[in-house]
From TrEMBL, chains A, B, C, D:
EC annotation from Swiss-Prot or TrEMBL: 1.2.1.38
Organism: Actinacidiphila alni
SUPFAM superfamilies linked: Glyceraldehyde-3-phosphate dehydrogenase-like, C-terminal domain, NAD(P)-binding Rossmann-fold domains
Keywords of this entry: Amino-acid biosynthesis, Arginine biosynthesis, Cytoplasm, NADP, Oxidoreductase
Protein family: Belongs to the NAGSA dehydrogenase family. Type 1 subfamily.
Name of the protein: N-acetyl-gamma-glutamyl-phosphate reductase
UniProt xrefs under PROSITE patterns: ARGC
One Gene Ontology molecular-function label: NADP+ binding
Keyword Repressor attached: no
PANTHER family xref list: N-ACETYL-GAMMA-GLUTAMYL-PHOSPHATE REDUCTASE, CHLOROPLASTIC-RELATED, N-ACETYL-GAMMA-GLUTAMYL-PHOSPHATE REDUCTASE, CHLOROPLASTIC-RELATED-RELATED
CDD domains, per database record: AGPR_1_actinobacAGPR_like, AGPR_1_C
Enzyme class of the recorded protein, top EC level: oxidoreductase
Pfam family, one: Semialdhyde_dhC_1
């Protein structure tokens, strides 16, 4: 099987990462790579780590250029995917790494993004209950946000098993690549090295409704989420520290059993042995997820912590994993669970 | 006034930081600097940033060496301060930067430290209600832990004003100097750069009872604390993200008013203008504290975030601030509120 | 004595650093702080580490605003200082932290900067032979570039003593703040963390003629310089590795003696004890310079290595040091030799 | 073809990296993984990024354990490989990632390592003239040092073409993993973050004779090397800045032609397009080498700069590349030229 794939938005971090993975994917042949402001430039100048593609020239992001591929990955700014998708017809599988088609609730979308809701596509987090069935054979995939990936995997087993109360309190630290490649003063190396700082505090981060959607679906009732993202002095990685009150009488053993059951057969999610804690370095460049939980008896709370690479499992790796499912390929094809450490 | 000060444990990070501050303190003359395994070595080899003290030789940590000073700073491993203090008599002011005398509850001490309780000294966090009165003229000071400093300052105004429920959920990110200078594999630069990881999860961190003590005192009732510390890839700084449910009917305006009132006259604590968030880089090497709060109406929670330098306000700066109060000096003498940034 | 100082270009890194130092300078009162694109904004939003100045509002950089000060620090883009200086008259001391007045040779200026030469001002590197005499009472000071500061101090004693051949080969690593605060993609934290890269290779860096000027003056003959700057993943600091062939028959002892003599009485330059090597962390935020040399007998070369903080001794600290000399103040006033480490 | 490979010293950085690569090598099956102080522990606890091997238990490093493999990788402290190799017999291919068998000159070995010379094995830098022929079918391979890999590839084309003088001046910056995983205070994250520092200055670094050996062989005459290594605040990567005087009349075009010719068909060495410079981030985790050169006409010097990943091309990737040649596999099998960036 040869899958011909195009990548729109190839000069950014998400686009670069999906290309990094696709070069190593044994069933994929890379077709068009496109940009807008960078069209006409060599990929080698924009993404110097992608040596095998250094001689490729970025084409403009148009329907003509993207036509004729089996899969089209969209790594575009929010709000642009719908128009591109509409022009591409139904033949190609379209994998959107932006936010446009993640939320089922139009009101949520409009509140957090301030534009009309474009629709809802099958959600590309295969580990969630029912997700694989929705992805198999799909022609449209909405890749989850990086924070919702880390948070949903850390908490959904407890919610699905009915073991925790419907209020989650979450703090996550993200590497700077999560903020993209557009040059902004507060993202300069001089500013971020040696510094931790929060942003989007108080319920305003756009990934919050996506977490609520996932956890509520798992719980079968409305879950509220208090989410605080922080920027950490590292290029990649998310460490999500998630907490929820355990239900009456719930024990540490029940909590652990729920996670063991949820992840027993998952190829990418690794519940660590007791006593070992996740570290983002261990999943650097990998599609793996490290998870560990603790039950704090003094507060009767579950603390569930996950580490992912925000660009791999949190974006492009999750996209390829879902593509594999949609195309009927083995789910792990072209994806590694080995991090580049130290 | 000339205050003659000795520093015991001068080869570590806390000892080095207190020396850095004391060199610039206009009323202090530095007397003995001591170490144990490093006795006989030049300070210039162990703390090369302390250029004016480069020629000082470390003496052994004995009562003889420490005698005859007006102030003795102890930067010793937990459990060693009581014996040294007992030998020094009542003349000198002893400022303990270790944990030995922070906790009032002997059972808490024994549970978290596994040794007999040595006692309780006046607690060196001047911003807490009543603290300055207890420190004035004191001959013994227990310097708070770095995390309890950051967390207590972030949350006590809300508790003191009775505006939040008695369960706090806290995640804090600390620079690696908080783990000390003893060489351990997981603290190697190769391991920590590019990585975020948690430790002491689930209620086990020794600073937890100290936070509970401070917040309960402010609230006038028992506050429970779920505390998760994480290690961040930076040498200094703590960012504490603290959350508690607002009380019934409490508004954002009431919360902000409580913080404005608490910190209106504090020389080191700076409640940021609305819209601006703390960053550890801004307080690098400074005794300042940056605080910002948000009220999340969707979860009815207060999010209070503080940034400190763990070695300055979190350890040695707090120690000097409390020494100033004990000696009747202006509280800010020798302390800066300017960070070294970028 | 009260010196009233203005800072033009206060929103950038050089401007922020000179303000950091001036706040702590006992003889200085800070007057106008100006910017252009940022005029009207609060300094607290632009330089959040300068807590005591947080409420200051940036004024526009005009002659009216800058008039009436004893000292005016210019932290402006290259080419703008001459026009501002011309408008300020002769009363005020003008300290230019840009490049405009550093080079004596108009042809060098035009070759490297591509604009007409504005002139030459007394050069603010007091440690160079004759520099203090030229600075005393001066009304105009050209602050050296950061790399020329590090390189000139590493090599001039050997050249002044006639001990090395007139070809220097230099590689220097700089923290990212040397590249300024303007947001450019290659300076993003995501790009610089974990990466070392060179730039301006092959003789093209604008600081090269300034190094040649200083070393040639010390040697009394034309010195050639091969200079390669590299960008290091840290916010501050320069480590300059400088090498030159020792003259015929020159010994390690003669080399060391030359450095000991040159720096015996210098308050800021510290020739380290043999066996200890400079580290940029040791001079973080300090005006100190660490220097060490080695004689490689197998190649008969001198290796001289210096560490400075590019923003302090390399820019704003050097500026304040020269201001002190010009005004007749003790040279070290307001300047520290203690680094903020770890 | 199934190649059964053992790794001795699997708990360190070199051992971990060779395992990372071997897991993805399509012709290799991983046999014994051994350690000494860590024998009996789970690999998952020591190398948490190697998820597929997490359940493996470290065995002791003995001849019995290492017997019966097609290839044995030795990642042992210097001086231990000879004894292990002697016990293993001639059947297996032994790939030594230590220094023991790199140097041809026994006097050099004894001078720099202070122990008797163990011998000389075929040298695993395939890009050097004649190296592939020596490696084909070899049963013993000495993997080059990380610095000699970076430096030799940066300079040998100029020496082989007779275009530069026989004195090279080199400064290299290395990530901290080059210093190994043994916990030492100066390698703590608190010490290395934010700091650049040199070590082994003045001809003393053990990799110097290896560079001289390679460059002299290329030049056909004795080349002298002045080498200064520096420690950079990043976990991986080497940036080598190498300089040599161009020969009389040599032009920039001749230099470039020599590099283009040398690397035209090399799968891993990439001479960048003019105007683009190497960055270690671009080769993070990759076996690729980025090289760029400049001719500085004012000093008539060649500046040749290379970037490698010290653990991949500089150690374990180079080892696998040479193994492939020795076994008759395609040279690039299991090796990537794509870096993990940003």
């Amino acid at each position: 099987m040869v899958v011909r794939a195009a990548v729109a938005g190839a000069s950014g971090y998400a686009g670069g990462e999906v290309l990094r993975l696709l070069v190593g994917h044994p069933e994929v042949e890379i077709g068009a790579v496109t940009g807008n402001s960078n069209a006409g430039q060599l990929l080698g100048a924009l993404q110097p780590h992608l040596l095998p593609l250094a001689g490729r020239v970025l084409e403009p992001t148009t329907a003509e250029v993207l036509a004729g591929h089996d899969v089209v990955f969209l790594a575009l700014p929010h709000g642009q995917s719908a128009a591109v998708a509409a022009q591409l017809g139904d033949e190609a599988l379209i994998v959107d790494m932006g936010a446009d088609f993640r939320l089922a609730d139009a009101a949520d979308w409009e509140k957090f993004y301030g534009s009309p809701h474009a629709g809802t596509w099958p959600y590309g987090l295969p580990e969630l209950p029912g997700a694989r069935a929705a992805l198999a054979g799909a022609k449209r995939i909405a890749v989850p946000g990086c924070y919702p990936t880390a948070v949903s995997l850390a908490l959904f087993p407890a919610y699905a098993a009915g073991l925790v109360e419907p209020e989650a309190v979450i703090t996550a630290a993200s590497g700077t690549s999560g903020a993209g490649k557009a040059a902004k003063p507060h993202l300069l190396g001089s500013e971020v090295m040696g510094s931790m700082s929060p942003y989007g505090v108080g319920g305003g981060h756009r990934h919050t409704p996506e977490m609520i959607q996932n956890l509520s679906a798992a719980a079968g009732r409305r879950v509220s989420v208090s989410f605080t993202p922080t920027l950490a002095p590292m290029p990649r990685g998310i460490l999500a520290t998630c907490s929820a009150k355990a239900g009456p009488g719930v024990t540490a053993a029940e909590l652990r059993a729920a996670y063991e059951k949820a992840y027993a057969d998952e190829p990418f999610v690794h519940l660590l042995p007791e006593g070992q804690w996740p570290a983002t370095a261990a999943v650097h460049g990998s599609n793996a997820v490290q998870i560990q939980i603790a039950y704090d008896e003094s507060t009767h709370r579950l603390i569930a912590i996950s580490a992912i690479d925000n660009l791999t499992k949190g974006t492009a790796g999750g996209a390829v994993q879902s593509m594999n499912i949609a195309l009927g390929l083995p789910e792990s094809t072209g994806l590694s669970t080995i991090g580049v450490a130290p």
